[in-house]
Amino acid sequence: MSESQADISVIVPCYNAERYLSVCLESLKAQREPEVQMLLIDDGSTDATGAMLDDFARVEPRARVIHTENGGVSAARNRGLALATGRYIAFVDADDALEENSLRTLYRHAVSTGAQIISANHTLFDMEKEQRVPVHLPPVAQDSAQIVREIIHMHRIYNNIWNKLYARELFDGLRLDEDVRIGEDALLNLQLFLRADKVAHLPDYTYVYRVHSQSAMAGVRSHSEAHQPMLRSMSAILLKQGVKERYFRDFLQSCVWIDEKERGIRACMKTFGERVRPLVLEGVREDRLLPQDKRLYRLVRQGGFPAFYTLMRVKEKLTGRKWGIRR
What we know:
Strand content: 15-25%
Number of helices: 13
Oligomer: single chain
Order of helices and strands: EHEHEHEEHEEHEHEHHHHHHH
Radius of gyration: 21 Å
Structural class: alpha/beta
Distance between the termini: 43 Å
Shape: elongated
Number of strands: 9
């Protein structure tokens, strides 16, 4: 098969993954349909990863190995995007695996429906406990605008890039932000779903997310601090696309929840004015807000939001009804 004939380009960033890589490669090898271009990016590994990839490519004609200096997962994925020739793009992490026939399932649905993004369910596999836990969340909507809202709220299916198939044209002029280390996939999806005209979600389980002590978030001490670059980039993207006012309430809720989840309501509200408020208000024009969000905007701008939010959280506990979406 020539690379120009590929139906799907599968991009696999690999860094010091020798402990997990063989399972990933075997799952790729087992994907017999459709025609696949495997782009295996060795991101400056210092263990046996590079040699394992070279050995695999010698017996797997669909695989191409690219050895680069270490630049991080986003740089590796961007390198793959630059080389991709497939009609569609899929991402797989080197410590994860594809379910049998997952690419065929995603591809056939994309071709038959014309959807530019196809998402699916996945399975968590705890490697220490050897336990499989299906992650099945009903699709929120088959509408890009609603899914963008869910991405802002850190949805467990829509935020990830490894459980989806994308039409390659969506990436024209678009790449991952290499300066963001946590949430970079959510930022990419935010932009891709803003571009997509038709999307779909399948109930099938197509991906195995393997959890272990070296997973990306395992060593993060402060989740709130780690997510701040992502939130700043998210604000910039929403402003650039001219939609920050449309998603004002959602962005506010997400910023608050990320901080509150780690530090608690009292600490979060105590520093809201200096920590969250400037980012939430940045670039927002009141005349472009949805009518139902204008009062909330004024509460944030005039300093009344902490008292309002604390009251809403108390009301939640009494009524069981959430104020906003929290993932």
